[in-house]
Amino acid sequence: MKIKFKSISLAIILFLFIQNSSFSQIHQFELGGDNFLLDKKPFQIISAEMHPARIPKEYWRHRIQMAKAMGCNTIAVYIFWNYHELKEGLFDFTTENRNIAEFIKICKQEGMWVLLRPGPYVCAEWDFGGLPTYLLKIPDIKIRCMDSRFMNAVTRYVNRLAKEVMALQCSNGGPILMVQLENEYGSYGNDRNYIKELKRLWTSNGIKVPFYTADGATDYMLDAGSIEGAAIGLDSGSSDADFETAKKHNPNIPVFSSETYPGWLTHWGEKWARPDTSELKKEMKYLLTNKKSFNLYVVHGGTNFGFTAGANAFSATQFQPDITSYDYDAPINEQGNATAKYYMLRNLIKQYVTYPVPEIPKPIKTISIPAISLKKVYNLWNYDAVSFQSAQPKPIEAFDQNQGLISYKTKLVGHKSGKLKIWEPHDYALVFLNGKFIDSIYRDGGKWETNLPKSDVKNPELEIVVEGMGHINFAQFMIDRKGITDRVTLNGMTLMDWKITPYAVDEKFIKNQQINFNKPVTNNNYCNFFKGNFELKETGDTYFNLSNYSKGILYINGHNLGRYWNKGPQQKLYCPASWLKKGSNEIIVFDLLQSQEKNISAEDVM
Questions:
Q1: pLDDT of 16 over the 70 cut
Q2: pLDDT for the residue numbered 518
Q3: Are 294 and 76 in contact (CB under 8 A)?
Q4: Rounded mean pLDDT of 120-127?
Q5: Quick check: helix, strand or coil at residue 8?
Q6: pLDDT band for position 524 (50/70/90)?
Q7: What's the pLDDT score for residue 517?
Q8: pLDDT(22) > 80
Q9: What is the band of 514 on the pLDDT scale with cuts at 50, 70, 90?
Q10: Is-contact 536 583, C-beta < 8 A?
Q11: Is 96 a catalytic residue?
Q12: Measured torsion, CA atoms of residues 65, 68, 73, 78, in degrees rounded to the nearest 10
């Protein structure tokens, strides 16, 4: 019996070895004239993009399996620099869902190749496009160019990240086929030395697989963003004309669609993005019929947990912050389920590929939670937070804070009423006079003024509380500091002598809860914390419904689920099962505008 058992065991081991043999050995990936070559044979990349930072670690394998079951053979991975270097010089590639090497190894275990997209800039509707906000402490910093201060930080990042991924190249037995240099650089700048230096940095750190760039299919973007010897990615490439435009810039390398869009992003105040599926099907048929390589951006979006959502701005007075959900109307929705779009793509891809497409994994378990009673427990001003004196306002980043809230307080001398203007409010400001709420000022649109009424107080106290809502992640206005970025004027007079108090309101801030209930608070109709507890007999994914509240942040068992805003369209925040527990759970809601206690429930669907 023992001999028979050993024989069966050896047979199983041999079978698994054969099944995974293509991922157990060194491979050669090359750029041919028109095709990518894997071990000297033409290889069509059918890639599905997803971002480990937006997916709970417990679901990494499930999401990769979902992409494979849709017919894809590759996973494209953005690395968010600021998610791994939270403080200058201090890197984290181990905690929570930051273990990039582990994610890539799971791709290999599941028989998937990898396109690595490490930045340093990535866009991705992610806060500051992935760049660390400590750079914004430098008053005259220039980004995405050969500014020595920026490049010193980039060099440190590349040197550190290379240690995580170097052994995972296909030339070393791993799944990484190519590494992208920067991202859509032709939409931003034209420092050719910068792109060349990035390639040199990666090469000097042991990256031997081919490189590629990604730009729009226009001549000026490709002229500024591409580089000799790197494949050209098109965002997106969907016609012969697109590919011919790219070939003009380098006829001797492959061109592929580095971002084919099955969905699109959504900003606060907009309707949910729901792109036309018939156009997507048409693009996909073109790519598959002509054996063009492509990457679906994104096949699964996930969630902008915490303060990771970015923003857009295409003029000096425009501001379009992204919602917390990164569902993106993607084929695999925020919670990991297959959509109608998924089945359409799966059926289409199966008609063209020669390799077997596996069955679709079972859906993740979901639960609903009945109404939870919340009580108003304390106020922002109950916190004993550290304050700083300054002649003029300073932005959040000057205090080593990424986003959250910041209070600016001063006594009015000279002018004491009239036209108050904030230069500039980044991004949502509450104005108080002698503890009484006067007005809210939102950055978008450039209307940054309000009227201060007359007061009987000799030197009225003005306080401005500002919420940061995501650093701009694309185009020319990316230098985007939070708080008050310059000055405050009253009837044209510049107001001086400010007491500045930053409130991080992040997970660490909530956990510490250094609250002083004896502290007198006059403006307690705003910036309130509501707290409750709920019991669970079982856990599962769920969506907390915030439609009873106004504007703020939700925390479950200390985890920051992200922002909500009754401006819409998002009213529910996704919570993975791993952040819940059997027995007692804690919920905290921080709301800038609401004083009334309301119940909250959770539902099993968005």
A1: no
A2: 82
A3: no
A4: 98
A5: helix
A6: confident
A7: 82
A8: no
A9: confident
A10: yes
A11: no
A12: -50
Both tokens of 460, joined, read: 């009225």
Phi, psi (deg, nearest 5) at residue 576:
-70, 155
Alpha helices in 47-178 (DSSP H): 60-69, 81-84, 100-109, 148-165
Across 550-578, b (16+ Cβ under 10 Å) vs e yields bbbbbbbeebbbbbbbbeeebbbbbbbbe
CA pair distance 305, 576, nearest whole angstrom? 11
CA–CA separation, 56 and 287 (whole Å): 32
Answer yes or no: is pLDDT of 519 > 70. Answer: yes
CB-CB contact of 193 with 201 (8 Å): no
Report the C-alpha gap between 213 and 234 in whole angstroms.
8
Determine the average pLDDT of the residues in 391-409: 97
Nearest 5°: phi and psi at 133? -75, -10
- Cα–Cα dist 20/287, whole Å: 28
Looking at every residue in the chain, the average pLDDT score rounds to: 95
581-596 confidence digits (pLDDT tens) = 999 999 999 999 999 9
Q: What is the mean pLDDT of residues 362-387?
A: 96
8 Å CB contact between 172 and 165: no
The domains of the chain, with CATH numbers, are 45-350 (3.20.20.80), 369-377+524-603 (2.60.120.260), 385-511 (2.60.120.260)
Residue 127 has pLDDT above 70, yes or no: yes
Options 49, 85, 164, 184, the catalytic residue: 184
pLDDT higher than 90, residue 88: yes
pTM of the model: 0.94
Residues 343 and 339: their CA atoms lie apart, in Å, by 7
Residues in the chain: 606
More reliable by pLDDT, 490 or 4: 490
* Cis amide linkage into residue 424, ω under 30° from 0: yes
Question: What gap in Å lies between CA 346 and CA 240, rounded to an integer?
Answer: 24
Which residues, in sequence order, are CB contacts of 570 under 8 Å at separation 6+? 266, 268, 323, 324, 325, 564
Residue type, 530: F
Active site residue 184: yes
Rounded-to-integer distance, Cα 258 and Cα 577, Å: 33
Catalytic residue among 85, 164, 197, 259: 259
Instruction: Please write the tens of the pLDDT for every residue from 490-507.
Output: 999 999 999 999 999 999
- Please report which confidence band the pLDDT of residue 130 belongs to, taking 50, 70 and 90 as the band edges: very high
Per-residue CA distances from 389 to 58, 433, 482 (Å): 45, 19, 18
Q: Give me 583's structure tokens.
A: 């027995």
Residue 426, C-beta contacts closer than 8 angstroms, at least 6 positions apart: 319, 395, 443, 466, 468, 480, 481, 482, 483, 484, 485
pLDDT of residue 24: 61
Q: Which residues make Cβ contacts (< 8 Å) with residue 556, sequence separation at least 6?
A: 544, 575, 579, 580, 585, 586, 587
In a 3-state reduction of DSSP, which class is residue 39?
Answer: coil
Predicted pLDDT at 8: 41
Residue in 479, 489, 480 with CA at minimum distance from that of residue 423? 489
Find, among 498, 518, 499, the residue nearest to 384 by Cα: 518
Terminal-residue alpha carbon distance, the chain: 54
What is the Cα–Cα distance from 24 to 270, expressed in whole angstroms? 47
What is d(CA 24, CA 22) in angstroms, rounded to the nearest whole number? Answer: 6
